[in-house]
Each structure stands twice: as C-alpha cells, then as structure tokens.
Amino acid sequence: MNILDSELIQNQLLSKGHELVEDPKKANVVLYNTCSVRDLSEQKVLSRLGIDKQRKDNGEELIVGVLGCMAERTNTDILAKNPHIDILVGPSRLNEISGLLEKLSDKSIKRQIALSNFRFRKGKKLEHEPMDSLEALDAARLTHGKQRKSQAYIRITRGCNKFCSFCVVPKTRGPEVHRTIESIVKESKALVQSGVIEITLLGQTINHYPDFARLLREVHDQNLELKRLRFMTSHPRDFTDEMLDAMAMSERICKYLHIPAQSGSNTVLRRMNRGYTREIYMDLIHRAKAKMPGISLLGDMIVGFPGETEEDFEASLSLLKEVRYQNVFIFKYSPRPGTVADKNLPDDIPWDLKKKRNNKMLEFQKQISLAEHQKALGQILNILVEGPAKNGDVMQGRTEGDQIVLFKGGERLIGKLVKVKIQDATALSLMGEVI
Ligand code: SAH
Ligand code: SF4
Question: Residue whose CA is closest, atom 4 of ligand 2?
C-alpha cells in the first residue's frame, strides 16, 4: 500500500514540475512516507528526521514532510518533538501534498497540516462510495508521465473496519471506503494499454469489497492482454465460495492467496479479535486447495502476543505445518498506542522470548518453504522477469505463485514472461534456466 502511495505522490509532484534526486542530501524537499504497524518502522523515521534537523540547523533551505500513517497517528506529538517538520499529511489526504508545498513557497507561511482524525461511526452500511478527492491521485497516474512498467498496483479499497486488537491501521487509514467497479476497471484498462501485464489489486481486507467476485471477473475478462491478476491482503472471515470459484475459473488470475492467520491458537485469536477460529481458517484453506490444487499460500503470524503461552505458540507452529505456506511473514508483537490490546492487555512476553519464538518459527517455516519449493524441481514455469538479482550476476523473476526465481539472462528480458526450467531450490528461491 505504501509503495503505491509513494508512486502516486511522485506522479503528482513530477506533474507539477518537481524533480526526483538520487541523493536525499541534495533534495530541497524531503518527504517520508511512513508506516505505523510496528514501533520499529517509526523509530527508523525518527532517526532520519534527525539528519534533516542537522541540515536545517546548518542553515540549509529544506522542507521536511512526514506523510502516511505515522503522521496521522502521532499528530501533535511528533511536531512537539520535531519542530523542524514543515508538512504533516495523513494517508487519506495525500492528494493535497503538491498544494501544501506550493503554499510553503510563501516564506511567511510556517507549517502545513492535513490529517483526518478519524472518528468511527459504528454500523455504517457497506456500500460502494465514490472515493472523494483522494481518488484523483489514482486517476492522475494515467495522465502524467510515461508508464512503462510491466507490474502495477491498483487500490480498490481504503481503510479497514475490522479492529483487530493489535492493529493501528483502522485508526490511521480510517473506515473502509470502496472505489466503484467502473473506476477500477477503467484504471486497469489504461494500465494494460500502457504495457502493464501484471496487476495486483490492493486492500487491507480486500475480499470485504462488495461483490469482490464480480470485480475479479470484470478486471480479468475486460483485459485480455493482462497476463496476471492478483490481489492482497485477504481476510479469512470474508471469503466466499463464489470468490474462490472466480479465481479458479479465471485462467489469468494467479492461484495465490496472501491470507494471514496471525495465530494458530483459538484463545489468542479471540483476544486478537480476528473473528475466526483455527477450524474456520483451516476449512477455508481446505476449500481453496480443493478448488485450486497447487495454490500458493502466504501468511502473516504474530509471536509474543499478550498472554501467549508455550502451548499457544506450539499451536501456531502446528498451523504452519497444516497449511503448508510457501512463505510466512513473522512479526514480534509490538504494542501500538490507541489499540484495544495496548489498552487492555499487558505486553507480558519478554523481548527475549519473543525473539526466541520468532527465530524458532522462522526455522520451522524454512523447512516447509524448502519442501514446497522442491515440488517445482524439473517443472517449466512462467516467470515474469523483474530485473537483476540483488546479489550475483543473475536475473530475478517471479512465478504465478510469487516464488522468486533466479536464472541467467539478459536485461532485455525485463518485464517479459519467460519459461524457466527449475533445476534447484532453497527455502527462499528457485533457480533455473530459460528455455
Ligand atoms: N490488513 C492485513 C494486515 C495489515 S498489517 C490483514 O488483516 O491481514 C500487516 C501485518 O502486520 C499484519 O498481518 C500483522 O501480522 C502485522 N502486525 C500488525 N500490527 C502488529 C503489531 N502491533 N505488532 C506486530 N505485528 C503487527
Ligand atoms: Fe489491521 Fe485487522 Fe484491519 Fe488487517 S484486518 S488492517 S490486521 S485491523
């Protein structure tokens, strides 16, 4: 979500005549698009802000902005501790940034703030709503600059109504708002026309979109040149058979689900307010596997949630074994101010134990990932080539199931779909040869 937000902000600013620089030290405007999901991400931003403060103290002319969830969450707090911040913009008002920058060019104007301070209205009816002025940001990407990419994100929903007890997102991104099917399809068509062959639809609980199955079919059926359509993140509570069928029956929808369980213990799931049990979750996984054999499953897990016993933790490990995810993102519980868990549940698992469980789970999942990857040995898979791999002189691409594949090949393959025969596998990636 943040990658897309940053891209949309860049588009807007480039269209207003701003330029990107490679080295942040050479920038006259520094904008941080921030994440508040865990404390660690916020700490990183605070330490970078220190660098900008020094530049300002040295008399450099510099505008410093904090955008996104951390701006919305910390509000006046962050300003009090960092008086050198010139712009504070919440995730639901990002469309206003270029206007705020313009205002700041008048030296008599000191600071610009655009936050939403969401107040939740309970029991609000779920419906399609025009996404207001923020949607202008999404629309603008199509009209400015050259879109020469092969992959793109499209947001279909903003915000979240779920209130998992540990999570800050509903507070920072606000209640759910859905774009219309027409506007999403229109954006997808324009992207495909510009050369995009893989689209990922985005939403915090994406399958809570009203008539999600129809949306999937429409985007798929109306874009015959689109090679891959995927979506994330799915919430286990909202998945219907109709959605699974739409996936199974649409050839170019990736057989891929990012569907976090967070825990394998029913007592923990209840305290997390996730709205499902382990049994309900597993039933969904079995249904998905029955309709789409070979489907690639990705998950998120939290270790060290308040009150998590050894038994609860073991239940999480056994869930990993039962589901057999291709990959799992594991997080150590981090209390977030303003959440129900922070208010009502003491953060009673010591850091060392969180770390120990985190490492144990990583090691445990590694074996499963390796075994899942090994199933691909000898197969010929379609790979969307992304570019040179981080280390080594090989190229990197991804399978339909989002597995990383490394292979020897030239830069001209970037953005193309190639067939690769898989010859080797590790827990993290596959290796093979273009055929
Ligand atoms: N909407 C997505 C998750 C968004 S946050 C969903 O419901 O699946 C991404 C991930 O961060 C979550 O899945 C969770 O595993 C992790 N996370 C969120 N809040 C956290 C916290 N307070 N401490 C640790 N991990 C957290
Ligand atoms: Fe956070 Fe839960 Fe909403 Fe996901 S579903 S964004 S974890 S509150």
Answer: 204
Total structural domains within the chain: 4
Of the ligands numbered here, which is closest to the C-alpha atom of 38? 1
DSSP state of 262: B
- For residue 249, tell me if it sits in a domain: yes
State the ligand closest to the CA atom of 170. Answer: 2
Task: Express each pLDDT in 230-259 by its tens digit.
Answer: 999 999 998 999 999 999 999 999 999 999
Whether 331 is in the pocket of ligand 1, judged by its Cβ within 6 Å, is yes
More confident residue, 240 or 145: 240
Sign of the dihedral defined by the CA atoms of residues 74, 79, 80, 82, in that order: positive
Q: Which of 345, 360, 375 is the last residue of a domain?
A: 375
**Ligand 1 atom with least separation from CA of 334:** 23
DSSP secondary structure letters along 237-285: GG--HHHHHHHHH-TTB-SEEE---B-S-HHHHHHHT-S--HHHHHHHH
Q: How far apart are CA 417 and CA 304, in angstroms?
A: 41
Q: Which numbered ligand comes closest to the C-alpha of 258?
A: 1
Q: What is the pTM of this model?
A: 0.94
For residue range 1-31, list pLDDT tens digits in order.
Answer: 999 999 999 989 998 999 999 998 899 999 9
* Cβ–ligand 1 contact at 336 (below 6 Å): yes
Strand ranges across the sheet with 198-202: 151-155, 198-202, 228-232
Beta carbon of 164 within 6 Å of any ligand 2 atom: yes
- The CA dihedral of 150, 156, 161, 162, to the nearest 10 degrees, is -40
Q: What span, in angstroms and rounded, lies between the C-alpha atoms of 76 and 71?
A: 9
Residue-range definition of the domain harbouring residue 420: 380-434
**Ligand 2 pocket, residue 170 CB under 6 Å:** yes
